[in-house]
Design goal:
Layout lengths: L4 H15 L1 H8 L2 E2 L17 E6 L7 E5 L15 E5 L7 E5 L3 E5 L1 H14 L3 H14 L6 H18 L3 H14 L5 H21 L3 H15 L5 H26 L3 H14 L6 H11 L2 E6 L14 H10 L1 E2 L1 E6 L4 E5 L2 E5 L5 E6 L13 H10 L10 H6 E6 L4 E6 L13 E2 L15 E6 L3 E6 L11 E6 L3 H9 L5 E2 L4 H8 L4 E5 L4 E7 L9 H9 L3 H9 L9 E2 L29 H22 L9 E5 L3 H15 L5 E5 L14 E6 L4 H9 L10 H11 L4 H18 L3 E6 L2 E5 L2 E2 L16 E2 L2
Parallel strand pairs: 7-18, 7-19, 23-24, 23-25
Antiparallel strand pairs: 1-3, 2-3, 2-6, 4-5, 8-15, 9-10, 11-12, 12-14, 13-14, 16-17, 17-18, 19-27, 20-27, 21-25, 21-26, 22-26, 28-29
Helix pairs in contact: 1-2, 3-4, 3-5, 4-5, 5-6, 6-7, 7-8, 7-9, 8-9, 9-10, 10-11, 17-19, 18-20, 21-22, 22-23
C-alpha cells in the first residue's frame, strides 16, 4: 500500500502509548514529516545500517530511515518505475511501499559514511574519521572512491603528525600509503618519506639509539633502494663516517690496553655500520686479548653467599666469588649430588663414618694450600654451640671429629645419616688459607660497581688465553628489556627468564635457552609481630583469599603451560615430572587450598571472634587490625605477583601496603614489613627444612609441631624414615601455615651461541664460569 509520513507518525504515537516514552524517543527519530535527520557524528555507527528515503513535497514531504535497500550492486536505479518496498528502522515485522514518483532522493548508507569520512578528514579530525573509514574498508571494499579517500586520510594524517613531531607515526603512515597506493602523488610521497626519515634519524642519533637507527636505515634501503630516498644515501655516508670514527677510537683504546672501552667502541662501530671493513675482525681480536661477558640480571647482589636459599642474586654471584666445602652439582635418585671441593669422601657401609680425603695435588691455588687440620677445625666449629658457625643439624649428626694423617679428616656420626655432605655446605674464604677473612676463593673477585652494574674480574692469572677476564652483571629494569638486549647482542647471557620470554628466545637461532634442573618454591613468610598474622586461622584466611592458580597461569606464565610450574600445598618442591625424585619431601595427596573468598571472609570473622573471646578472658583490649605491609624483592616478577595478591586481599576489606625492598635484598629489616614474598631454593629438604621453618630460619617458627617434625627428620637413619618425616612435616606445615605456600616455578636462563662451556643441568649460572669461552 502507498503511505505518507503522517501514517508513520501515527504508528509512532501508538508505539509511544504502548512501549513507553523511553523507547518511543528512539523510534521517532527514524522518520519525520519535514526537515532532515540531525547530525549525530560518531554515534551514527551505533545505529543499525540504513538508507534515508526523502519524499517529495507533493506527496507530503518528510524522510524515513529504511533498512538497507536491496538494489543490485547497491546502485539506485536510474529510471525507476512502479513502487519501492522497504522496512522502517524501529518498526518490526511490517513492510511499507511507496510510488517511486513520491521519492525525491535516497541517501545510501555507504554514501553517508563516505561523506562523514571526507568531512572529518577536511577538518583534520583523523580520530573521528578512522572508525567510518574502517567500516567502509570492512563492508564496502570495492567502492569506487574508497582508494582515493583512504589515501587522502593517510596523507593528511601523516602531514599533521609530522607537524607535531611524531616522526615514527608519520613514517608508518607514509609507508602504509606507499604500499597501499603507490600511484598517489608518488614524487611528493617519496619526498615526504625522505624528509621524515631524515628527521627521525637525527632524533635517534641525538638520543644515542644508534643501533635502532642503523636497523631502520637498513630496512628502508631494502624496501626503497638508495636511489628513491635521498636521505638513505646521506645517512649511509654519515653512519660510515661515524663507524670509522668509533673503530679508530676502539683501536686507540686497544693500544692503550683500555680493553673495556675498546670492546664497547668496537661493538658500537659494528652496530652503526654492520658491514664496516674489519669490524667483526676487530671484535674477535679484542675478545681474544680480553674476553669479557655481559650478564643481564634482575637483581645485583649486595651480599655474596652461595648457600643462601632465599636470595637468588646472592646465591648466583656468591658462587662466582666463593667456593663451598661441599657444592651441590645436581639432583640424584637419593637427594642432591655433592662434590667435596678439596678431594673425595668415603663412607662406611653402615653410614656411621664419614671421612674427607684431601687431594691437594689436583687443585690450583688457593685451594691447593688447604691444611687438613683447618678443615677439621671448621667442621668442629659448626658443631660447637655458641659459635657463629654453629648449625644444629650437623651438631646432632656428628659425635667425634679426628684426623688420620694430614690429609684425612674422620667424622664419626651418632647414627647413620643418609646424606651428611649436605650438612657441610660451608662457604670458604681466604681465612682458611691464612689470608684475610672474606677474601675470595672462587675464580673471580668483585671489582667496581655502580647503581646497575657490578664487575667481577679474574682473581688470578688466566689458566688459558680464552678464559674470561671479566664477568659484568647489568641489572635490567624488566625481563623484557633483558630479552631485547640479548637479541641485539648487547648482552651475552640472561640469568633468569619469564616463561613467555623463554619461549620467545628459544625461536632465535642465535640463542640457547636452558632450564635450571631444580625449581624454586615461592611463598609468603610472616616476618613481624603483627597480631593477626600470628593467628593460624587468619593465615588460613589469607591463603583462601589468593587465587594462586590465576596469578601463576595468567600473570606469571602468561597463559603458557610450563611443566613443573604449579600451585603447591607446602614449602617443599613438588618435582617437575611424575615420580620425580626431586619431590621426595612433597606429599601429593595434600591438595592446595582453592580460592574461596567467601570462606576467607568467614575465617576472618571467626578469627576476630576468637581474638575477642581471648582478650575478654584476659581482660585485655582486642589488638587493632593494622594494615598488612607486604614486602617483595625489587624485580618485576615479584612485583607482578605481589600487586595481584594485594588486589585480591583488598577484596576481603584488608588494608595492604606494598614495600619494595632495596636492590639485592630479599628479606626486610625488623619493623619495616609484616610478610615477605620469598622465592626459595629448597633443593635439599633434609637440611633446608630447618633453614626455612626452624626458630633461626626464615620463618622463625616456634611451633611445637614444626619443631617435632624437624627433629624427627634429623634423627632419621635411612631414606624411608627421612621421607616419612618430611611428608609428616609437609602435613604439619599445611595445617599450621608457618609460611603461606604459593607456587613452584621452573626457572631458565639463556645465552648467545658464541659463548661455550656453560654446561647442561647446572644448578647455578656460574657453576662452570671458569670454563666459559667466547668463540666468534
Amino acid at each position: 500500500m502507498n503511505i505518507k509520513i503522517q501514517s508513520l507518525l501515527y504508528v509512532g504515537v501508538w508505539l509511544l502509548c504502548t512501549v513507553g516514552a523511553g523507547s518511543a524517543s528512539a523510534q521517532i527519530v527514524n522518520y519525520a514529516d519535514s526537515g532532515v535527520p540531525d547530525r549525530v557524528g560518531l554515534e551514527l555507527l551505533q545505529e543499525e545500517p540504513h538508507d534515508i528515503i526523502y519524499l517529495t513535497e507533493e506527496s507530503g514531504g518528510g524522510w524515513v530511515k529504511a533498512r538497507l535497500l536491496d538494489f543490485p550492486g547497491r546502485k539506485i536505479p536510474s529510471d525507476p518505475k512502479g513502487v519501492l518496498q522497504f522496512e522502517v528502522i524501529g518498526i518490526e515485522l511490517k513492510k511499507f511501499v511507496t510510488d517511486w514518483k513520491n521519492i525525491e532522493k535516497i541517501d545510501l548508507w555507504e554514501t553517508r559514511l563516505e561523506r562523514e569520512t571526507a568531512e572529518m578528514i577536511a577538518k583534520e579530525d583523523f580520530k573521528g574519521a578512522y572508525p567510518f573509514l574502517s567500516v567502509l574498508i570492512r563492508d564496502y571494499p570495492n567502492r569506487p572512491g574508497l582508494r582515493k579517500l583512504r589515501s587522502e586520510f593517510l596523507w593528511k594524517d601523516a602531514i599533521k603528525r609530522a607537524k607535531s613531531g611524531e616522526f615514527e607515526a608519520t613514517l608508518a603512515m607514509l609507508e602504509e600509503l606507499w604500499r597501499y597506493a603507490p600511484e598517489f602523488q608518488p614524487t611528493t610521497v617519496l619526498g615526504a618519506l625522505s624528509g621524515v626519515t631524515d628527521k627521525l634519524m637525527m632524533k635517534l642519533v641525538k638520543e644515542g639509539r644508534l643501533e635502532h637507527a642503523q636497523q631502520m636505515l637498513a630496512r628502508l634501503e631494502k624496501d626503497y633502494g638508495e636511489g628513491r630516498l635521498a636521505s638513505i644515501s646521506k645517512w649511509n655516508k654519515l653512519f660510515l663516517q661515524l663507524a670509522q670514527k668509533k673503530q679508530r677510537e676502539a683501536i686507540a683504546a686497544l693500544e692503550a690496553k683500555d680493553y673495556r672501552a675498546a670492546r664497547a667502541l668496537s661493538r658500537e662501530s659494528v652496530a652503526v655500520r654492520p658491514d664496516i671493513e674489519g669490524g667483526k675482525e676487530l671484535i674477535r681480536k679484542i675478545d681474544t686479548i680480553y674476553p669479557l661477558v655481559r650478564v643481564g640480571v634482575l637483581q645485583t647482589a649486595t651480599v655474596l653467599d652461595p648457600t643462601r636459599i632465599d636470595n637468588w642474586a646472592s646465591r648466583r654471584a656468591g658462587r662466582l666469588v666463593y667456593r663451598t666445602l661441599f657444592e651441590m652439582k645436581g639432583a640424584g635418585p637419593e637427594g642432591g649430588e655433592y662434590d667435596f671441593v678439596f678431594g673425595e669422601t668415603e663412607t662406611t657401609p653402615y653410614r656411621t663414618q664419614f671421612d674427607l680425603v684431601l687431594e691437594t695435588e689436583k687443585l690450583k691455588p688457593p685451594l691447593s694450600e688447604i691444611q687438613g687440620f683447618t678443615i677439621a677445625d671448621k667442621i668442629a666449629e659448626r658443631a660447637t654451640r655458641n659459635t657463629p658457625e654453629y648449625f644444629s643439624p650437623w651438631a646432632a649428626a656428628v659425635e667425634a671429629i679426628g684426623m688420620d694423617g694430614p690429609k684425612r679428616v674422620e667424622c664419626t656420626l651418632r647414627r647413620p645419616h643418609v646424606l651428611p655432605s649436605c650438612l657441610l655446605q660451608i662457604p670458604i674464604d681466604g681465612s682458611w688459607f691464612g689470608g684475610k677473612k672474606g677474601a675470595p676463593t672462587g675464580a673471580y673477585q668483585r671489582d667496581a660497581e655502580s647503581d646497575d652494574t657490578v664487575r667481577y674480574i679474574l682473581a688470578a692469572e688466566p689458566e688459558t688465553p680464552e678464559q674470561l677476564r671479566e664477568v659484568v652483571e647489568i641489572r635490567q629494569a624488566s625481563a623484557s628489556d633483558g630479552v631485547s638486549m640479548l637479541l641485539q647482542g648487547e648482552l651475552d647471557v640472561l640469568d633468569q627468564l619469564f616463561p613467555a620470554d623463554a619461549v620467545r628466545l628459544s625461536k632465535s637461532r642465535d640463542i640457547r635457552v636452558k632450564n635450571y634442573p631444580l625449581p624454586t618454591v615461592h611463598m609468603l613468610v610472616p616476618c613481624s609481630d603483627h597480631a593477626y598474622l600470628a593467628e593460624r586461622t587468619f593465615r588460613r584466611a589469607l591463603v583462601y583469599g589468593i587465587n594462586r592458580a590465576d596469578i601463576l597461569n595468567g600473570e606469571l606464565l602468561e597463559g603458557l603451560e610450563v611443566p613443573g610450574c604449579q600451585v603447591v600445598s607446602g614449602p617443599f618442591p613438588a618435582g617437575i615430572e611424575m615420580d620425580d625424585p626431586l619431590g621426595y619431601a612433597y606429599d601429593k595427596s595434600i591438595a592446595p587450598r582453592r580460592y574461596e573468598p567467601r570462606l576467607a571472609k568467614l575465617l576472618m570473622t571467626l578469627n576476630a571472634n576468637q581474638m575477642k573471646a581471648m582478650a575478654d578472658r584476659k581482660k585485655e583490649t582486642v589488638p587493632e587490625m593494622k594494615p598488612i605491609r607486604l614486602a617483595f624483592p625489587a624485580d618485576n616478577l615479584s612485583r607482578v605477583a605481589c600487586e595481584a595478591i594485594m588486589s585480591q586481599w583488598q577484596l576481603l576489606d584488608l588494608k595492604i601496603e606494598l614495600v619494595e625492598l632495596p636492590v639485592g635484598r630479599t628479606y626486610p629489616d625488623p619493623g619495616t614489613a609484616d610478610i615477605v614474598y620469598v622465592s626459595a631454593a629448597i633443593w635439599e629438604p633434609i637440611i633446608d627444612a630447618r633453614r626455612l621453618l626452624g626458630p633461626e630460619g626464615l620463618a622463625g617458627s616456634s611451633d611445637q609441631l614444626v619443631g617435632l617434625g624437624l627433629r624427627r627428620i634429623e634423627e632419621a637413619r635411612d631414606w624411608r624414615m627421612v621421607r616419612d618425616g618430611l611428608l609428616d612435616l609437609h602435613a604439619i606445615a599445611h595445617h599450621e601455615l608457618p609460611v603461606l605456600p604459593l607456587w613452584q616455578m621452573v626457572d631458565s636462563y639463556a645465552y648467545r651461541r658464541e659463548l661455550t662451556g656453560v654446561g647442561n643441568d647446572i644448578v647455578s649460572l656460574y657453576q662452570n664460569a671458569d670454563k666459559w669461552q667466547l668463540n666468534h
